[in-house]
Amino acid sequence: MTSLAIAANGLRKSYGDKVVLDAIDLAVPEGTVFSLLGPNGAGKTTVVKILSTLVTADDGDLRVGGHDLGADPQAVRAAIGVTGQFSAVDGLITGEENMLLMADLHHLTRAEGRRVAARLLERFDLVEAAKKPASTYSGGMKRRLDIAMTLVGSPRIIFLDEPTTGLDPRSRHTMWQIIRELVRDGVTVFLTTQYLEEADELADRIAVLNDGRIAAEGTADELKRLIPGGHIRLRFTDPGAHRTAASALRQVTEVTSDDENLALRIPSDGSQHALRSLLDRLDTAGIEADELTVHTPDLDDVFFALTGTAEVPRPQSEPDQPKENVR
Ligand code: ADP
After folding, report:
1. Which residues, 6+ apart, have CB-to-CB distance to 236 below 8 Å?
2. Please, is 88 exposed, middle or buried when counting C-beta atoms within 10 Å of its C-beta (0-12, 13-18, 19+)?
3. Which of 151, 178, 278, 285 has its CA 20 to 30 A from that of 311?
4. pTM above 0.90, yes or no
5. Residue located nearest, by CA, to atom 14 of ligand 1
6. Is 43 in the pocket of ligand 1 (CB under 6 A)?
7. What's the CA-to-centroid distance between 114 and ligand 1, angstroms?
8. Which domains does the chain have, with CATH numbers?
């Protein structure tokens, strides 16, 4: 059995009358990426603040890096790194000075500090910027510096609170690459995000937080299987063909008609067998659809179904991905 980097049982937190976390359980195996996904205000940052010892929980059995949060917060602090909305980067000094300051905090010798700083600045492509004040850095560079600073202490567990919020697509992909490399080195990553795509891309396991509770937990594939939503969509240009197809198919299967778009939606698992029997049926009835698309449920569907949130944030400056996958 692999040991757990993070284990929370019955984690509770309220602010006044407001229950923010209502007895949630989390288990994150060492060396994996765990993503806590949820709409704004779901309580994600509160979880990170509690697990990283910045805020105390009202109740719960909480262990991070094998240490009890209540009994030994110092040991937890020594095992973790935190980056995110409360960034440690000081804008007034240079990137290199930020790194050296961090090395001092971790009691590295001067020579060791310089060596570690140089290696990390190189790794995160910040050598050229190293002598410039951090306030002149772009958003992506600041996040890279923030992670580099976190790594000075060689933490085995890293909390990343919405690490790519506000970044352009290129910087986001660089950040994903960095996260993958951390995991390859054996680091455990606890990642909060509002972006389904990000959780799908990076996480071994995902928990959907909604209204202070874990609405679902599993791999991306397991979550997708939780909800129905797979269907085949047929589109027509001729209203007559649309009508004929609807009545022919209704004799053998459930059909939802989208009259405005001259489309039909037939529930389906999208398998080859299902597709063939539908095509046979259309052939027999002499019907030719103008377009056929297979829709498999994605994390968006899961998110809608579990959180009832209609507004799923999308990374800025990227066109919405079409939900229908044409096979
Ligand atoms: P998320 O990170 O998912 O957006 P947060 O953890 O920041 O959510 O917040 C969850 C809820 O807890 C919100 O309703 C927020 O207003 C409330 N909250 C967070 N911190 C405090 C605080 N210090 N005092 C009062 N309410 C808070």
Report:
1. 242, 245, 262, 263, 264, 289, 290
2. middle
3. 178
4. no
5. 41
6. yes
7. 39
8. 1-88+182-226+298-327 (3.40.50.300), 231-296 (3.30.70.100)
